Amino acid sequence: MNTHSPAAADSGASATDVFRQSGRSSAGADIPVERAQALIGDAIKAMSDIAEKHSMTYEEFNILKGWLIQVGEDGEWPLWLDVFLEHTIEDIVTRDRKGSKGSIFGPYYVPNSPVIQSPATIPMRDDEKGTRLKFTGNIADVDGGALTDATIELWQADEEGYYSQFAPGIPEWNLRVTVPVDSEGNFEISTIQPAPYQIPTDGSTGKMIAAIDGHAWRPAHLHILVKAPGHQDLIQQLYFPGDEHNDDDVAQAVKPELMLDPQPDGEGGKTAVYNYQLDKA
Ligand code: DHB
Ligand code: FE
């Protein structure tokens, strides 16, 4: 039995609060009018085209209105947009990169997690459940030169699929860490293997998924943010072979380059290596 529930009212509303506080919703608000006309005009036209194509009825139009209102009241717009649209934006903005592949940010990042020197153990509960995972690697530029002033941030769900600071009952900063690399650009982080994650099913996003007979699962993943001065931030997720949702991620955020290859460490845990290459800013 879970000791807490993934209620939309908890994780969904927290994601809305955290997003508002991040300042990202107003950064870049000076979008030129021609650009706004193109984006907003096409969005409105796309909605009308769908209504036309399917001869949408008044009943369906009113259900849509009620649902849109409810997504906002549930605080689920960060969830909905990060699941269904962010993968497209991520593909567009990283198209020209030569270095490591990225993936979606998702709604559950919190800046300024505890800084722990490498070799680091991620903050976790004394009785944290899950297979021990030692995650190691190197951070370099696209020519292989070590980036010795890089940091790697890791955040992840626990063994039950919940994120600290979003689901209730988990200590602050649990399974969240910032690790500066060593003098050769290497890092080592001891953590646990996360569980597959189900986006909240009890709010309006879940209702929409049920209405189309879909599922709400994402495969187990580590969230990563790598930063180095003079280089582009790398927002990434890493996945585990054999997860039943690697091929049907609800958020469509899995790429073959993001698959880890964890090996048994002989002591009941696993080790996984990932080497990064960052593009210049
Ligand atoms: C969502 C959750 C995640 O952990 C993630 O990586 C992407 C999206 C979500 O609930 O929207
Ligand atoms: Fe996630």
UniProtKB/TrEMBL annotation:
PROSITE patterns assigned to the protein according to its UniProt record, in alphabetical order: INTRADIOL_DIOXYGENAS
Stretch list, region Disordered: 1-27
Highest rank taxon of the organism: Bacteria
UniProt family annotation: Belongs to the intradiol ring-cleavage dioxygenase family.
Cofactor: Fe(3+)
Species per Swiss-Prot/TrEMBL record: Brevibacterium jeotgali
GO BP term (any one): catechol-containing compound metabolic process
The protein's Enzyme Commission number: 1.13.11.1
One Gene Ontology term of the molecular function aspect: ferric iron binding
Alphabetical UniProt keywords: Dioxygenase, Iron, Metal-binding, Oxidoreductase
Keyword set includes Signal: no
Enzyme class: oxidoreductase
Domain Intradiol ring-cleavage dioxygenases residue range list: 135-163
Protein name: Catechol 1,2-dioxygenase
